[in-house]
Predict the structure.
Amino acid sequence: MSKVQVRDLPEGVVLGNLQSLFSNMLHQMGRKLPQADAVFLNSFEELDLTITNDLKSKFKKFLNVGPFTLLSPPPPAEVPDINSCLSWLDEQKKAASVAYVSFDMVAKLPPVEVVAIAEALEAGKVPFIWSLQDKFQADLPQGFKERTKPHGIVVPWAPQVDILNHEAIGVFITHCGWNSMLESIVGGVPMICRPLFGDHRLNGRMIESIWEIGLKVEDGKFTKDGLMKRLDLVLRQEEGKKMRERIKKPKEDLINAIGPKGSSVENFQVLLDIVSKG
């Protein structure tokens, strides 16, 4: 945690309104956690063994039992690729060349930053898939979708896990929420992070400074020139290749963790036994 800065912590911990209901809830949770029979987390042990071992020393039973979205994926029939994203990716000729852009449904970007992303993708002629809800597409520059049609698509929804596992994807432009981060790791895709709130800043710090598998945006927000530099670095320069090499280790650890004899599966069984006996 030595590279983590105070400002990376979520609102309500040491910054913001420390008298709010949310801040008080966090404080009371922190006091109660050591009394719990078990504390379980939506992660996997091997992501950071130092933190895992430290937390194991503080709780009666500390169990990484995730990632939830990858341990129990919905049947394929329930997540049809209604916007033909995967078939579009199949047509791309170069591996690790496409940018996938997606933000959580509650993580709305300021319109000026939506414009900055669009301008960077258009000016850099970067192949892209952009998952953007219809109600936010009004923020796009006029004529953007038509002008970029030869090398990009904007869709209201995309099968994120399948996209991140496609060999054509070279970078994930994301708010770096926990689930999105883990899904990017299992896909072996470096990230460009624009943290918005909650755990995003802390995740972004880990991604950039600890694991070195991605970058945060310059000065905390998207600009045309800043994003173009980031895209060029990740997709075309040697540092991007190094990121893709570095992400192979956590990807392998994650896949092993959710395998038949993996740590997350075994930990989940321990949790199940605790709950059943309780």
About this structure: The longest strand covers residues 169-174.
